[in-house]
Design brief:
By secondary structure, this protein is mostly helical. Helices cover about 55% and strands about 0% of the residues. The chain contains 20 helices and four strands. Keywords: Hydrolase, Magnesium, Metal-binding. This is ADP-ribosylglycohydrolase. Its cofactor is Mg(2+).
Length: about 450
């Protein structure tokens, strides 16, 4: 799979802005505002042309957005792995393991999100940390800068952490729980975005655009696609975990719940990523191999989609990947010029992180964070999948002790959550999800 890099127009646009500023400072030369208005009109026209452009018919037929069409294009698969939720041995412990693994992976990556590998190496050297990191960071840059209006970057370091620091990857996991608590297992897409509108003070890329469209009165079925070039980025599959937790052992149900959430903001491969990882997490609670869980997750998305092709490639070469740098190099070569927050390339890094770490969650999240790209997202998913297999006791204490019993929150009107309470609530909703689908 190859990608043609976009023309580098950022520098040109920056220079145009600087010319505008200069001419304004010099007294507003004739035609300054007219020129900027002309540029704005041209850019709006080009954007609209891209939005209206049709994708190729072959790709469109292989990558539908409709759930029933998606199901028709799935391979044969293991839709349900146990007869009852109670048949999952030690589900309560494995659920806590999945949660704690997610929190640990996310927190380790959040402090260095999107940084290049050499930059992370430098931080490790300054802080006296091992590289790749085997514990939370001791030194970060921009320590006083806020993330999500709540925690400073320094709050993500080893000695300053007090609870799970805020991150959108954690927030959306909790959001899924609250959606099902309020609206039940058969919640709709409109229910999801209504809760976003109520609780989320800040969002980015696809989620931000969906909320803008919703608040502007766009039909709920269209809010994820109107003026939204981010529909295949990573933002949907970071919302996977809650559906997998509440559908443990039943991958098909997890994928269906994920679909109803994903289409709020994403389309095609952005949606498939959330469906696949939700199904994989649901499967992991019944297995002893997280890579096998990913194989089962693949059974819930179109077999010929670009996302499925990419994951099959990653699985096929995973045994040959030697370390974080090799993983990053392979993904860069396979998906040249793909955006570093795309759903596809980051999903392959999840596969490689699990392959490198096995059931050693420290090694797995360490290697995954060291790969860079959207590494709080990737390490969180790696931690969730492995944690669902090994349980809480399979996670070394240095990853969980700094959390105490607290999850920090940036939701409107909610300062924090209790980890024990969230665990109990997920257990309750899992029972309700199972009861609902067994009776329907």
């Amino acid at each position: 799979m190859s990608y043609l890099g976009a023309p580098d127009m950022k520098k040109q646009l920056e220079e145009i802005i600087h010319w505008y500023e200069l001419r304004q400072d010099q007294g507003g030369g004739l035609g300054v505002d007219e020129l900027m208005g002309e540029l704005d009109g041209v850019m709006a026209h080009v954007r609209d042309q891209f939005q209206e452009m049709e994708i190729c018919s072959r790709l469109s037929s292989q990558e539908p957005d409709d759930l029933e069409a998606i199901k028709l294009l799935r391979p044969e698969g293991d839709r349900r792995l146990v007869a009852r939720l109670a048949d999952i041995a030690d589900f309560d412990d494995r659920l806590m393991g999945a949660m704690m693994g997610r929190f640990a992976g996310c927190t380790l990556g959040a402090a260095v999100e999107l940084l290049e590998i050499d930059r992370m190496k430098g931080l490790a050297e300054i802080g006296g940390d091992e590289w790749p990191p085997m514990d939370y960071w001791q030194y970060v840059t921009n320590g006083d800068v806020l993330r999500y209006t709540k925690n400073r970057f320094i709050d993500y370091t080893r000695d300053r952490m007090c609870g799970v620091p805020v991150d959108d990857d954690i927030a959306y996991t909790l959001m899924g729980l609250m959606v099902v608590e309020r609206f039940g297992p058969c919640f709709g897409t409109a229910d999801v975005v209504a809760m976003w509108d109520e609780l989320i003070p800040i969002a980015y890329t696809a989620e931000e655009r969906a909320l803008e469209n919703y608040r502007a009165g766009v039909d709920v079925e269209k809010i994820g696609e109107v003026n939204n070039p981010y529909v295949e980025w990573i933002g949907a599959w970071i919302r996977s975990d809650g559906w997998g937790y509440m559908s443990a052992g039943w991958p098909e149900v997890a994928a269906e719940m994920a679909y109803r959430d994903a289409v709020v903001s994403h389309r095609r491969n952005g949606v498939y990523g959330e469906m696949m990882f939700s199904a994989a997490i649901a499967a992991a609670f019944t297995l002893d191999c997280p890579l096998r869980a990913i194989e089962i997750g693949l059974q819930e998305i179109p077999a010929k989609s670009r996302f499925a092709d990419a994951i099959r490639w990653a699985l096929s070469v995973a045994d040959d990947v030697t370390d974080y740098q090799d993983a990053r190099d392979r993904v860069e070569a396979q998906f040249k010029d793909m955006n570093i927050v795309h759903a596809i390339n980051n999903a392959c890094l999840v596969v490689f992180g699990i392959a490198l770490g096995g059931l050693d969650i420290t090694k797995a999240i360490s290697q995954t964070v060291a790969m860079g790209m959207d590494n709080d997202c990737t390490a969180a998913t790696v931690g969730s999948l492995i944690g669902a297999v090994v349980g809480k006791d399979g996670i070394p204490a240095h990853w969980t002790e700094p959390f105490g019993d607290t999850i920090q929150s940036y939701f409107n009107g909610i300062e924090s959550f209790s980890i024990k309470d969230v665990h109990a609530r997920f257990m309750t909703q899992a029972e309700k999800v199972w009861a609902y689908h067994q009776s329907s």
